[in-house]
Specification:
Keywords: G-protein coupled receptor, Membrane, Receptor, Transducer, Transmembrane, Transmembrane helix
InterPro entries: GPCR_Rhodpsn, GPCR_Rhodpsn_7TM, NPY_rcpt
Radius of gyration: 27 Å
Shape: elongated
Largest sheet: 2 strands, antiparallel
Strand content: under 5%
GO cellular component, one term: plasma membrane
CATH superfamily: Rhodopsin 7-helix transmembrane proteins
Family: Belongs to the G-protein coupled receptor 1 family.
Number of strands: 2
Number of helices: 12
Strand order of the largest sheet: 1-2
Subcellular location: Membrane
Length: 400
């Protein structure tokens, strides 16, 4: 008699090799082609591959949420959207990442009827909430830089948009809860239980979801950051062409950011698209190819890896977040702790202490999604500017 304790049948084998006829008089143990056991070392390797992603994702996204809770000055509109994306990514790691090990390893769906309904719903909801936040961040930066005189969002409006992203994500994910159910089949020596679904309807549903998850954000990012690059080129000609030798610095930075975003998306979503499209659009009577089993697990793991990488791209690479991390998590930055020196004349000079310090507006251009309306060089003090600008009139810029 077989039990489900260590039955390690890949779930997709059932899809193509077992039909829904009456098997109550047959022994499941006699059908060795259905009983595929994963070696213990393969399961261990998969756990070891997923564990660093979970640790990095939990720590990174929790760090962003803690910073937003503890430092009020960080609660700008753009940072609220980044915080919302961090929450969605954290929920993806906590609620979804570990299930791939269970589904990949066990013969039966052991998570129960309720989680059979909620598994796909959670996956799609959290992924879409993260993607919607990413789209809003790109749009907010576009409006702040290309249309600096347009009306800016208030914090209240930003929170309304955050709620709307979650409502929209849950509405889009609801079919996965409706079209999935727990199904059982009684063999003579074994009860087979799996999470079944309406493959015909989900085929077109997943096509729509892939468009929302991959192609819409890629298109929005490409359009938004291309417009930002063109606008920055215009600003640089106005501000720096005659005054500053580093006139190409910020445009190159934006190009690198755009390239990083696009490369990140392609790397993490291409394999998942191949798996989903092949599974739902192959001929119904055709068996799944051998390569499907090999790429099934890494395709899903890569989507979780993006939830772990997003805090690095949108948090650790953001100067204001880096400063906030140093303030919030002082124990992790002891080596960079500033200690008083024996040169008090420079540090404690009243003139020096009262002198305001400034950052170039472009320095904060990707931190709060805003840009000033083409200030003159008399109104902006650059950190890299030669000493001859030290006597120019300056004004304070809003640093996130």
């Amino acid at each position: 008699m077989f039990t489900s304790d260590m039955a390690l049948l890949m779930p997709f084998v059932r899809e193509t090799q077992v039909s829904d006829f009456n098997v109550s008089d047959l022994d499941f143990s006699n059908h060795t082609n259905l009983w595929i056991r994963l070696p213990a070392h393969e399961i261990a390797l998969k756990v070891l591959a997923l564990l660093p992603i979970m640790v990095l994702g939990i720590f990174g996204n929790v760090a962003i949420l803690v910073v937003m809770l503890r430092i009020k000055g960080m609660r700008t509109c753009t940072n609220i959207f980044i915080c919302n994306m961090a929450l969605a990514d954290l929920m993806t790691i906590l609620c979804c990442s570990w299930t791939i090990i269970v589904v990949d390893a066990y013969q039966n769906f052991i998570l129960g009827k309720i989680y059979c309904k909620l598994d796909g719903f959670f996956h799609v909801t959290f992924l879409l909430a993260s993607v919607f936040s990413l789209i809003i961040i790109s749009g907010d930066r576009l409006l702040g830089i290309v249309f600096p005189f347009s009306r800016r969002l208030s914090r209240g409006q930003a929170w309304i948009i955050v709620v709307a992203t979650w409502v929209a994500a849950m509405m889009c994910a609801s079919p996965t809860a409706i079209w999935r159910w727990l199904q059982a089949r009684e063999w003579h020596d074994y009860e087979e239980v799996w999470c079944n679904e309406n493959g015909f309807l989900l085929k077109y549903y997943w096509l729509m979801i892939l468009i929302l998850l991959v192609y819409v954000p890629l298109t929005v990012m490409a359009v938004a950051y291309t417009a930002i690059i063109l606008q920055l080129d215009k600003y640089e000609h106005q501000l720096f062409l005659r005054e500053h030798p580093l006139k190409m610095k910020y445009r190159k930075k934006v190009i690198k950011v755009l390239f990083m975003y696009v490369l990140n998306y392609l790397a993490f979503w291409v394999l998942f698209q191949v798996v989903v499209l092949y599974r739902y659009f192959k001929p119904p009577q055709q068996e799944l190819a051998p390569w499907y089993r090999k790429v099934y697990f890494p395709a899903h793991v890569l989507t979780y890896a993006q939830s772990a990488i997003n805090p690095i791209i949108y948090g650790a690479c953001n100067e204001s977040f880096r400063k906030a991390f140093r303030i919030t998590f002082r124990c992790l930055f002891k080596k960079n702790k500033i200690r008083p020196t024996a040169a008090p004349n420079y540090v404690h000079s009243p003139q020096r202490a009262n002198r305001p310090t400034f950052n170039c507006v472009n320095k904060n251009i990707f931190q709060n999604g805003q840009v000033a309306a083409a200030p003159s060089t008399q109104e902006t003090e650059l950190k890299d500017m030669p000493d001859k600008t030290s006597n120019r009139k300056t004004r304070t810029s809003n640093v996130t």
